[in-house]
Design a protein that fits this description.
single chain; mainly beta; Porin; 16-stranded antiparallel barrel; 4 helices; about 55% strand; globular
Length: about 475
């Protein structure tokens, strides 16, 4: 990686020669062939010309500043971005007394929009008054993202995401996402505002159309003693469309908190032998949620936590055909020993009342949910799942970084609260080999589910079928 250390200086008393002296000292101390050290004085080439061709640049400068009344604030480097948007994010205004801490906070605010490759502040003094220049370079904001995923449940899926993350230069976002395959579809048109007026609230409005095909499974006798099986007996389609109004705020260095008003038409349509499940409702829901994510990387974190908490309710007073309440919680953590072993516990909990319709119910089963069950094997209003995973990074690479994962699952799901009992707990155990590829994780795995039966004290362990899983690509 080619690195540039750029020492600035000049004849003006405000700037001085400190940056030049530091650069000269580093030239003697560093002695690295991949590090270039350049001295630059006032009037030299433009900064962009100096740093061109380097992977990383460190600028050393010194400015003497009098904390007087700010004479003017200028913005340089914006192409699409409007100056009022940048100045709104900056913590100081013309006529205020210059304070270095507020200036730092303002630069942090501008950087946190993620619209710029770099942002820095130049301070000059005219008639003993500080004049500020905010210099920045924009990131590309008109983007097209493409994605692919293959798995054993939904086969080939694709994604196209077209959006402008700096719409009209005011930091708002306009995007359209289309994802899915033969058994699912997700289409979303959304508009987001990063700051509502002068508050730190975000606001968004979106329209969506989603379909999801799910198989219906039923118990079947096993081919061997003390074994059970699950067979596919039907299929239905979950169809939803509507709109969402979202208000949110960012939790510093943690995540986001949101409040949503959701107007949704939900329908369950039978595709094969699922006529008894058909339903159709118009739902008006209010949803409060918090997402916390401190994981250090994706898709194979080494440390950090993840939290997703949601409470929603539908009431007829808002135009909903039915009323219900629902609370869900997911918590996971990652802890590593050395560079190869990582322990990943995960806890998922969901509770809802008896009026919650099938389209909104919790799901259990699948490669990432519960070993030994197919995707969405069961649905219900009460959910309790514990996953304990141990991951090991192999010392050799099989083309890519290669991991071995083993996981134990324990949980239950039911339609009614009184059915959540220790005796209804199912268990799952499985192992996977995973690769970190350029197109996302590639995972091959196998797992089996089992439970303990009090009715058969001589052979209490009842085993399910051994299921195989595979997937390539990120979750769409």
């Amino acid at each position: 990686m080619k690195t540039l250390i750029l020492g600035f200086g000049g004849p003006s008393p405000a700037r001085g020669h400190v940056g030049l002296e530091v650069a000269r000292g580093l030239y003697v101390a560093v002695g690295d062939p991949d590090v270039d050290i350049i001295e630059a004085q006032d009037g030299d080439l433009d900064l962009l010309d100096l740093i061109a061709g380097y992977d990383k640049a460190v600028v050393v400068d010194c400015v003497r500043v009098s904390e007087g009344e700010i004479g003017a604030i200028d913005v340089q480097g914006g192409v699409r971005t409007q100056d009022p948007f940048v100045l709104r994010e900056f913590s100081l205004q013309q006529g205020e007394v210059f304070q270095i801490e507020k200036a730092k906070r303002g630069l942090t605010n501008i950087n946190s929009t993620r619209l710029f490759e770099y942002v820095y502040l130049e301070v000059s003094t005219v008639n003993n008054r500080p004049f500020l220049t905010i210099r920045l370079k924009e990131r590309p904001s008109q983007l097209v993202r493409l994605g692919l995923r293959v798995d054993n449940e939904r086969n080939l899926q694709g994604l196209v995401d077209v959006r402008d993350e700096n719409f009209q230069g005011f930091g708002t976002e306009l995007g359209f996402l289309l994802a899915g395959g033969q058994r699912n579809l997700d289409a979303v048109l959304e508009y987001k505002v990063r700051r509502l007026f002068d508050t730190y609230l975000t606001v968004g409005v979106s329209g969506f159309y989603r379909t999801l095909n799910s198989s219906v499974y039923a118990d079947a006798p096993g081919q061997r003693e003390n074994h059970w099986d699950r067979k596919r007996v039907g299929e239905y389609r979950d169809i939803r469309y509507g709109g969402v109004l979202t208000f949110g705020t960012h939790l510093e260095r943690l995540g986001d908190a949101t409040a949503e008003l959701v107007m949704e038409n939900a329908r369950i349509k039978s595709l094969e032998n699922a006529e008894t499940l058909e339903e159709r409702y118009q739902l008006a829901m209010v949803r409060f949620g918090t997402v916390v994510d401190t994981k250090d990387s994706y898709p194979f974190p080494g440390k950090g936590v993840g939290l997703r908490l949601s409470y929603e309710f539908a009431i007829q007073g808002l135009g909903s055909d039915i009323s219900y309440n629902s609370l869900s919680l997911m918590y996971e953590s990652f802890a590593s020993w050395g560079t190869r072993f990582t322990f990943h516990p995960k806890f998922t909990l969901g509770f809802a009342d008896k009026t919650m319709p099938l389209s909104q119910q919790f799901r259990l089963g699948g490669q990432d949910s519960f070993f030994g069950l197919r995707e969405d094997d069961q649905r219900g209003r009460q959910l309790l799942v514990v996953n304990l995973e141990l991951r090991y990074l192999l010392p050799i690479r099989l083309l890519f970084d290669t991991y071995i994962r083993a996981r134990y699952d324990m949980g239950t799901i039911s339609a009614n609260p009184e059915e959540i009992k220790f005796s209804t707990l199912r268990h799952g155990i499985g192992a996977e080999v995973a690769f970190r590829t350029p197109v996302g994780p590639a995972v091959l795995g196998a797992g089996q589910s089992f439970y303990f039966s009090k009715d058969l004290p001589q052979n209490p362990i009842q085993q399910g079928p051994l299921l195989f899983y595979f997937m390539i690509g990120y979750q769409l």
